[in-house]
């Protein structure tokens, strides 16, 4: 179980512009709770501590500005990883704020994976990565390139998990995930 693994912190990526959604994804309500709060509660349940948000806005959690604003998610991972490493963490769980429907069981294979990093095949997030990050990584890299540089194992993702892990980038995806959430 994750409790016996090296010190794990969490980075919640909140730096996107939410252009396709039309409103801040972190503040959207999912069954009456903000997306940011659901993702943070998931991280706490692992347990991952500390938890930092990477992006330009303050949602009531420790916030780390992206290494390079609007460059992409790797800038947020870099900034969050530096903060977690300074706090003594040796691994980081990287989560996206737009995927508040991820379940703890969805993360278990990543947390128990012995590789230095891991994500699901075809989905760079969620990701578990050892710290420090590879020295050569740049803030404008795509997440898949960071995963490659870190030697991430690509785990097989069951089809039914894909929508939960991918999250909601627009209103239609959000409605579909909300409907699935209510049906279970």
Order of strands, main sheet, comes to 5-4-1-6-8-7-9
* The CATH homologous superfamily: Spore Coat Polysaccharide Biosynthesis Protein SpsA, Chain A
- The CATH topology is Spore Coat Polysaccharide Biosynthesis Protein SpsA, Chain A
What order do the helices and strands follow?
EEEHEEHEHEEHEHH
Which CATH-level-2 architecture?
Alpha-Beta Complex
Fraction of residues in helices? 25-40%
* Poorly predicted segments: 1-5
Mean pLDDT: 88
Q: At the first level of CATH, what is the class?
A: Alpha Beta
Distance separating the two termini: 25 Å
Which structural class do you get from the secondary structure elements? alpha/beta
Radius of gyration: 15 Å
- Give the overall shape: globular
Tell how many strands the DSSP assignment holds.
9
Largest sheet composition: 7 strands, mixed
Individual helix count: 6
Taken as a percent bin, the fraction of beta residues is 15-25%
């Amino acid at each position: 179980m994750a409790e016996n693994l090296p010190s794990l912190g969490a980075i919640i990526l909140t730096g996107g512009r939410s252009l396709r959604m039309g409103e801040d994804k972190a503040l959207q309500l999912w069954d009456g709770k903000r997306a940011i709060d659901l993702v943070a509660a998931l991280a706490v349940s692992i347990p991952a501590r500390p938890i930092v948000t990477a992006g330009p806005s303050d949602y009531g959690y420790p916030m780390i500005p992206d290494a390079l604003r609007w460059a992409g998610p790797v800038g947020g991972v870099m900034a969050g990883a530096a903060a977690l490493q300074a706090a003594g963490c040796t691994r980081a769980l990287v989560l996206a704020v737009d995927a508040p429907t991820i379940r703890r069981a969805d993360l278990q294979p990543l947390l128990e994976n012995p590789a230095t990093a891991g994500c699901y095949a075809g989905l760079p997030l969620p990701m578990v990565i050892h710290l420090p990050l590879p020295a050569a990584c740049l803030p404008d890299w795509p997440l898949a390139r960071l995963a490659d540089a870190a030697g991430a194992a690509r785990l097989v993702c069951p089809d039914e998990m894909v929508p939960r892990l991918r999250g909601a980038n627009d209103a239609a995806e959000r409605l579909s995930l909300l409907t699935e959430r209510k049906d279970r």
